[in-house]
Amino acid sequence: MRYQIAAANWKMNLSWDEADNLLTEVLSLTASVKESQRVVFAVPAPYLDMAVGHIADKFHMHVAAQNCHSKKSGAFTGEISVQMLNSVEVEYVIIGHSERREYFNESNQFLAEKIDIALEYGIKPIFCCGEALPIRESGGQNEFVSTQLQESLYHLSAEQVKQVVIAYEPIWAIGTGKTASSEQAQEMHAHIRSELAGKYGREIADQISILYGGSVKASNAKEIFHQPDVDGGLVGGASLVAEEFVAIINALK
């Protein structure tokens, strides 16, 4: 089933008390989440267990890690394995966020390995893709995103790829206050779905949720989310304000 998803990416923010209070406030304000909708909280690693406790009895709410390693275990000081995530009942993991690609030089092949091990442990990847401003200005965004999909996802079977959520991030719109227009978002989301259909068939492509991630806020969420191929958002800064994020959840179609 193709879900409408509001995913909060807290990044490296908040103390324990602030995180606890934010979750409490969001959950107290959230209207009922429909059968076709999901809410995901991607919290910093120290707060994963606390977040799982908060949403334990909540309808269609889930916790995500912001990253994982490509290996099951080993001498990788400071890293987190999917085996660890699975053991604390984390259900999603963000893979390939533009900040991981830029600051930690994560390649498409390395991300493919992360996708594989996440799926092996039953954790749903939220796979991020998207182009920087120079690529957009040169008109190469479609080819660039297609390559990201091909090199990180296209080794998966049809059954496996249905477990993946895709988040399109126009990198030039992350943390800049700029936002792709709803038409630009729809154009790229339609391209991604068309690419998936070319590889896996239209029936499979229509089951995959594709989120928009680029300065989503309460004031623009409804217009963006109501585009036919946009299935919600991966939300950064606005997810740190309870009223903002709840308004974004309520903007899902």
Describe the structure.
It is a single chain. The mean pLDDT is 95. This protein has 253 residues and is an alpha/beta fold. α5 (108-120) crosses α7 and α7 (141-153) packs across α9. The protein has a single domain, classed as TIM Barrel. The chain has an 8-stranded parallel beta sheet with strand order 7-6-5-4-3-2-1-8. It starts with a strand and ends with a helix. Helices cover 43% and strands 15% of the residues. The chain has 12 helices and 8 strands. The longest helix has 19 residues, at 182-200.
Please work out how many helical segments DSSP would assign.
12
Per DSSP E runs of 2 or more residues, the count of β-strands stands at 8
CATH architecture: Alpha-Beta Barrel
Overall number of domains: 1
Q: Supply the CATH superfamily name.
A: Aldolase class I
Q: How do the helices and strands follow one another from N- to C-terminus?
A: EHEHEHEHHEHHHEHHEHEH
Q: Summary?
A:
With 253 residues, the protein is of the alpha/beta class. It has helices spanning 16-29, 48-54, 82-87, 98-104, 108-120, 133-138, 141-153, 158-161, 182-200, 202-205, 218-225, 242-250; strands at residues 4-9, 37-42, 61-65, 92-95, 124-129, 165-168, 210-212, 232-235.
